[in-house]
Amino acid sequence: MTANDIVRALAAGGTADPYPLYADLHRLGEAVALTAPDLPYAATVHSYRAVDQLMRDTSFEVYDAFWLASTTPDWQRHPVLVMLMNSMMFSNGDQHLRMRALFRKVFTPRRVRRMEPEIVRITAELLDRLAELGADGAEVDYMAEFAYLLPARVVGRLLGLPDEDISWFRSQVDLINDWLDFRRKGPDVLAAADEAAAGITEYYLDLIALRRKEPQADLISDLVRAVDRGQHKVTDLELVGNLLVLFNASFSTTIHLFGNALPLLLERPATQMPAFVEEVLRYETPAHVFIRVASTDTEFLGVPLKRGQLVAVLTGAANRDPRRFPDPDRFDPSRPDNQPISFGAGTHYCLGAALARAEARLALPMVLKRFPQLALGGDPIHTDQLILHGYKSLPIVLGR
Known about the structure:
three-stranded antiparallel sheet; single chain; CATH 1.10.630.10
């Protein structure tokens, strides 16, 4: 298969098991040109070395408002594009650093450590709920009743969102993720994402205004306080865009970390947890693709690129790179120097990485301790996305 054929296959539905396609890409080199006019990308970068190098290279930018305007001049008519372009996820240079500095100030490793008792409490609550739903051997959907709810409630309490609003948030974020996916987007997908973004924007602006009047012990209150004291020049709409990104980074990928981990954990219940989590992140990466833009005419590992061309950065492939990980298709938590690139690298490294790792490290052992006879149930349903790789549904039975 040519590189064009491989990327077409990924976009057309090779998402449940993309790893044979990644192996084909690895045989073609570390980065390959894409020449088909029906593909929006000029190249894929997929080796571990290449992905790490490109993500740290500031001449390759995220797709910000400047680049978007060249292809979608009316982008400001779309609420989802306005929201995303107001976030650090879709900004470069000084604008990115300005927003990231605010969030790094209040979303600190110390704050994540302080969340650990809350993570344990939420986990225990959800395991009690699982016990009720799975009584008498009834099948339970692990994704819907645990993997989705745990990270959503954790980040909700971090931000100060009421538990009763979390299910609505999840549905709206899913619509936005559909638009962000690797595949081509139709007008119906964009329209649904626009409606979701408009609703989220209104919700957050109301909450920001409320926290200005009545501060709480939550992240949004701390962000608003830092801005209002003049310490950081960030607008309310930029707060909204970045709160969405933080929710997404701390929620959507963690869902699939939990889902992808469970079948592997059931095969190895005695595994040491930090090493197990790192190997899950490598072996079944929750987020498989990022997009970068060449900001100048250049050449990357022998692949010529023109200014403005898009590059598909395949972190899921990088974590199965045989050059970096011997026998990459074998799950092995004892791998030496196991440093998956699942959360990116460089200035856009995922802000929610530490929280995701803490949740998995704390919660997964509690699942098996509470339900030592837990087993997989009926047929799972995989996502049809590549940007977020995992399960839509994963039936389980809890045992006696």
